Amino acid sequence: MLGKYGAKESDSGSSPVAVEAKQKAPAAGGRCGWKVHFSPAGGCTAAVVSALEGAKREVRVQAYSFTSAPIASALRAAHKRGVDVQVILDEAQRGDKYSAADFLARSGIPTWIDARPGLQHNKVIVIDAAWVITGSFNFTRAAEERNRENLLVLEDPQLAAAYADNWERDRAACEAYDARN
Q: For residue 17, which of 10, 11, 36, 88 is within the disulfide window of CB 3.0 to 4.6 Å?
């Protein structure tokens, strides 16, 4: 289902909103495909929200900076649909005034803080053991509207398994987030 979670091509041709891959033979007989988005105004947030709307079983998120209300709301909606949603955030999100951490935790989504030395600089979402969303794109309004960022939406179960394994290793070293009062 190449392109299921990507934005449409730019009608004007002036800015690359999404670039669609041609179907390639997967390395191990599985499916593979990708879309890439560029910001500002390249539909990165919409691509993430669309992917989350399609989640059926589980979503694993790792984010350095997470202040995007539309993405946080899409995670909450997935959680309410019965999708197993869990989030790891960098320690800086614990005190960030605009962090989505409180919203997620109060929505019943297990939220973890990575307080180890060095930044938890991943920007990754793994969906249903098949899709990986990654790139330089932080889950923030600034990343969508002002920064020059990239977002890859990759359909590859083997890649998703590798990212999910990394998520589990990182989660084991994290502490549960306690929402502020």
A: 10
| pLDDT above 90 (res 53) | yes
Residues 3-18: tens digit of each pLDDT:
444 433 333 333 334 4
- Backbone φ, ψ for residue 166 (5° rounding): -65, -40
In a domain, 21, yes or no: no
Domain assignment present for residue 141? The answer is yes
Give the residue from 60, 66, 68 showing the smallest Cα distance to 109. 60
Integer CA distances (angstroms), 31 to 7, 19, 167, in order = 20, 18, 22
Number of folded domains in the chain? 1
Residue 75 is part of a domain; what is its CATH number?
A: 3.30.870.10
Return d(Cα 137, Cα 126) in angstroms, integer: 15
**Quick check: pTM over 0.85?**
no
Q: Which of 37, 123, 156, 170 is catalytic?
A: 123
Kindly name the residue from 4, 56, 80, 121 that is annotated as catalytic: 121
Specify whether 4 is catalytic: no
Q: Which of 128, 156, 165, 178 is flagged as catalytic?
A: 128
**Strand-pair category, 124-127 with 111-114:** unpaired
Residue 79 among the catalytic residues: no
The verdict on whether 128 is a catalytic residue reads yes
Does any domain span residue 123?
Answer: yes
In a domain? residue 104: yes
